[in-house]
Design a protein that fits this description.
about 160 residues, alpha+beta, 5 helices, 5 strands
Length: about 160
């Protein structure tokens, strides 16, 4: 009977291993209470600082509405806050270089998402499910020799 007990104990140990809990993420903040992250999109790189506040976004020393005049780009930057459900609760200060306005807006969005997940780790699942923490890998294709552009051939002339 002792063998049966040890066999049952062995089965119980094999079937129900101790559930290893995922390590809890700790908030990452500097001495001023801000979280920092780098966002990238195409050739644009954005350095983003997020801190609790009234919801104002400063990009390269200008208000977001002045820097990104198109409403679509302003909407892109506001998406991480809407998905996380923290609209108007954080101030953002960003510096962005390289690329065009669309790429810069995408870089700021990526940086805000990463900084929010560092500031408040409980927001990470919502941002990850929306795909905001993944860097968009699409970049401009390089020009090849023997071609007018990346893929376009020179005009063909029969004579």
């Amino acid at each position: 009977m002792a063998e049966l007990n040890s066999l049952e104990e062995l089965r119980g140990a094999v079937e129900a291993p101790e559930a290893a809990e995922a390590p809890r993420r700790e908030p990452v903040r500097d001495e001023l209470g801000r979280s920092y992250a780098t966002g990238k999109r195409k050739d644009a790189v954005a350095r983003v600082w997020v801190k609790p506040g009234s919801g104002k976004v400063i990009v390269n020393g200008k208000d977001m509405a002045a820097y990104f005049a198109r409403p679509v780009l302003q909407m892109v930057i506001g998406q991480p806050f809407q998905v996380a459900g923290v609209t108007g609760e954080f101030d953002v200060m960003a510096t962005v270089k390289g690329g065009g306005l669309s790429g810069q807006a995408g870089a700021v969005k990526h940086g805000i998402s990463k900084a929010l997940s560092l500031y408040e780790p409980s927001l990470r699942p919502a941002l990850k499910a929306a795909g905001f923490l993944t860097r968009d890998p699409r970049v401009v294709e390089r020009k090849k020799y023997g071609k007018a552009k990346a893929r376009r051939s020179f005009q063909f002339s029969k004579r």
